[in-house]
Structures are given as structure tokens and as C-alpha cells.
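Running log. JK asked me to keep both predictions on one page so they can be read side by side. First protein, sequence followed by its C-alpha cells:
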Amino acid sequence: MDILIPTWINGELKPVEKMKAHLQGLRHKAISVFVMQGSKTLLQRRTLSKYHTPGLWANACCTHPEWDEVGLDCATRRLSEELGIVGQTPVYRDTVEYSADVGNNMVENEVVEIFVVQANKVLVRPNANEVMDYRWETLEDLHKQIKSNPGQFTPWLKIYLEQHAKKIFANYAG
């Protein structure tokens, strides 16, 4: 079954098949979630079976809301589906836009609702179909790792940290 995501066509939001939106570089909605423990953020390594950016490190979860799905509901759903994280309420932080080549002739041209979860203790049970590894990293160390090994991280994580960190991490050290 094709997944239809909210995509702008001639200035109007329409349901478009997700792969088509990426292959044509169409501007579409997305969500991105950062899970924080103090100044540490949860990173996930995308499985090798992902259709773009396989094996790269990203923030806790990123996805596209389905047609007529509210961003908060999507963020909560994907935290559970990707990382097995339940009982947490993501808090809306900001909306950002970016465009990035993600390989395989695909472009992420996104309007992203950013959410943050502050969790002192959280049980992470990654879905092996989505996530091959995860780790907690301080923001300071993450910045250093991205500078020294940029090819290990998704384009959007680098964009978030380089261009939007003050908005996303306003209450976190690092």
C-alpha cells in the first residue's frame, strides 16, 4: 500500500505518494523528534534496508505524517514504532524548512515540525526493521563527531545542528 503524505502541489496541500515526493523533490510535511536526557540526545542508526541514507546516524526519529495526521500524533506514533518509546509526550519546539540530497536520486524538501521529549529515564526498544543501533550523545560531543566524520550522519541532523540548534536545544547545555 502506498503511503500518502501531505505535499504542496501548486501551492495547495495534497496527498502524494511518499516515494514520488522524494523522487521529484516536492515540498512536503515532516516531523522530527529529539529525545533528551539533560544535555544528551538519543541518536539512532538507520537500518541498511532504508531506501535512503541507510546506516547513517540521525536524531531519535524523523518521518512524514500521513495524509490528515497531526504532527504530534505522528511524532508519538513513530517514537513507539521506531524506538519502542511509549508514555512520553513530545513538545512542539519549532517548524523549520530544509532541502537536502539524500541519495538514490531523492531529495528531502521538507517543512518539519520539530518536537523534543525530555526524559530522565526512558526505555528504548528499537524496531530492528527501522533502527540498527542507538546511543546517547552529549550535544557538545555530537558537534565534534559531525565535524570529524560528517559522512556518518544524515543531512537533516547536520542541518538541524548547524542552522537550528538554538531553537531546538534552547533549554539544554552543549
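And the second, directly underneath as requested:
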Amino acid sequence: MNQKTLIKEKIINYIYTLSNQPVVFKDLLSANSHYNEKMYVDPGKLGFRMNIMKAYTVYLVLSTLVIMPLIGLTHYFLKSIDFHFSVLWAIIITSAIFIGFNFFRAWIRDTITLKLIKKAWLIHFPYFPYYKYSQKVENIYNESLKSEISKKNLQLYVMDKLIEKSQ
């Protein structure tokens, strides 16, 4: 595991609380379908919850690590220009920091969503690699919704169709 992945994992483990309960088959199919469509995945289906104060703390540290060196580099040039430009740039940078938190939150949520989908995938589809079969399973799940397959028969339906399509 490289350094970047290790840091990302530590951030995820710090920010999120994960449930010990396994992901239900139908919830995995729904989450996979939403994730592939770039839609919001309900955290309750995958069993995770964000601690917003911890997310703010991590974002504060990360943004400080980026902003402070930039301030140090640009201070020499900005001290000699008109005060009004400095105020304008302070407003722009402050806005970028606050807007950046929403991007950070979406990125970290997408990261934990994919991680938990892959983890549940290994339990429910151990012989079908995620990246190869996630789109096929999504299509089968969408067909099952149109065909109004009962929750009781869903797993059998999906597995039969998946085996049929992989041959």
C-alpha cells in the first residue's frame, strides 16, 4: 500500500463510523446501481455515518497545509500592492476554502461508498470481479425492478441472469 492510500484510509477511518452489520443483498444492488449512475448513495444502506466535526477538523488541517505555504510565497508580492487587491484576494480565497469543503465531503463520501460496495461485493459475488461485473449486475437489477421480482427471489434471479450472461 502506498503512502497516499495509507493517508486516505486513515482519514476515512477517522471521519466515518462503520456498522458491524453486513450489507443486505438488495441494498448492495441498489447502492451499486446508484453509484454507477453517479447518484447519491444512502449511507444507511451501506452502514456508515460521517462525523461532521471530524470532517471539518481534517479539512482544516489539509487546507492549512496547502494555504500556509502559498501565503508564505505570495506575501512578499502582495504586501507591495494596493490594499484593495489584498482584500479582494482574501475574499476569493476564503470563498474557495468554504466551497472546497463541499468537494472534499463529496470526494470522501464517494471513496467510502466504493470501498464498502467492494467489501460487500466480495461477500455476495465472490466469483465475479467488481470492475468487470458491476455494470452487468446493475443492468440485471434494473431488469428485476421492471419485472417486479420479489425480494425473496431477487438473489436467485440475479445469480441466474449473471451466470447466463457470463457464459
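Observation for JK regarding the second prediction: Helices lie at 3-15, 25-36, 43-46, 52-78, 83-124, 130-146, 151-166.
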